[in-house]
Structure prediction request, 399 residues.
Amino acid sequence: MTTVSHAVWNSSTEGGDRDALYLRRTLRSGQRVDHDGNVVVFGDVHAGAEIVAAGDVLVFGHLRGVVHAGAAGAETARVCAWRLEPVQLRIARMIARSPDRGDEPSVAPEVARIEGGQVVIERADRADDGRVPRG
Amino acid sequence: MGEVIVVTSGKGGVGKTTTTANLGTALAQSGSRVCLVDADIGLRNLDVVLGLENRIVYDLVDVVEGFCRLRQALIRDKRLEGLSLLPAAQTKDKTAVTPEQMKGLTDELRQEFDFILVDSPAGIEQGFKNAIAGADRALIVATPEVASVRDADRIIGLLEAAEIPPARLIVNRLRPQMVRKGDMMSVDDIVDILAIDLIGVVPEDEQIVVTTNRGEPAALIQGSRAGEAYRNIARRIKGEEVPFIDLEETSGFLGRLRRMFGQA
Ligand SMILES: Nc1ncnc2c1ncn2[C@@H]1O[C@H](COP(=O)(O)OP(=O)(O)OP(=O)(O)O)[C@@H](O)[C@H]1O
Ligand SMILES: [Mg+2]
Prediction:
């Protein structure tokens, strides 16, 4: 099931009929995307926006909102962004939040995943296992 | 046919009413026929800021409910020929009007005025929905504070959902010294976060407080910095290219260079 609140797009016209929901727009504060599969955003996700996906979340833009990948429990889910600076990031049942005193700005594409029982973030071009999240 | 522009912000107290009064004044000064609509029903202010409170007989709700004709409720400004005000009701609440009625009202005003500026209440509820109902475009007012910018972002999203064309941004109450010291968000920071076009920057200016209390918008006063900023925004609304006044004074070569290195 896919629900998108306060938004003008419609998943059936943007490739949402398949596994991945493809959004070509900016998500602004107060906008929320809920999707059963993977979510691909070609745009920015502003602070105050939320993405909840059963699968992976890929953002080809600045990710500053809250994102929950693997929301149905998939611990293998990943979050990848061109610039990864989320207020809060959840994968399956793990929750990571941004530091209280100003985060280092993200300077390269990064991937977040669960490793050793916690959320780890690494540069996308240095991800050790060489696997890229499937979108 | 006139154009309907809503002035809105999400967050309260950031300067919507001040902006509406000053832009209306500046537009009327430059020869346009302008009607200001106070859509903040139950908390009307615009009449006070314009010094017109004592002239109110009928209000917006009276028009909508058919107690009077639109023309009877319009108040002529005491200084500027081309400026009129449609006051809000003070004793009713926002549910007294529907978005459809607001749209009807603004469409009627289009026949007689070049610009209809609608002063929106704070929030995203019924009052906001009424204010945007008839709008062709929107001006977003934000102050250089995180909460204000966040609310502005929310409002921009709601305007997009309502299919009102991309809003333009007014940054209000900027304090250049604080920006220079790194204690306040810069205009660039705000534009970067909101990703919409800037139409003007209004500095923090004591004269706003003085003129507001006198019921005489700062745009009327030569030498007022905020007044000048509003006059420039009015010209931009009319499609003129007006260079931005550099309030931050950081755009020297060194400033640029530092910023570029800082972001790597
Ligand atoms: N540039 C400025 N410099 C100094 N004071 C300002 C400036 N802009 C607004 N103010 C002051 O800020 C206060 C709030 O302004 P205003 O009433 O226009 O906000 P508003 O957004 O309409 O508020 P509300 O949400 O309650 O309708 C007023 O006292 C006003 O005089
Ligand atoms: Mg107001």
User: Anything to note?
Assistant: Chain A touches chain B through 15 residues (CB under 8 Å). The pocket of adenosine-5'-triphosphate (ligand 1) is lined by residues B 9, 12-18, 40, 45, 121-122, 172-173, 202, 204-205, 208-209, 212, 226 (CB under 6 Å). Confidence is low (pLDDT under 50) at residues 6-18, 130-135 of chain A. The two ends of chain A are 17 Å apart (CA to CA).
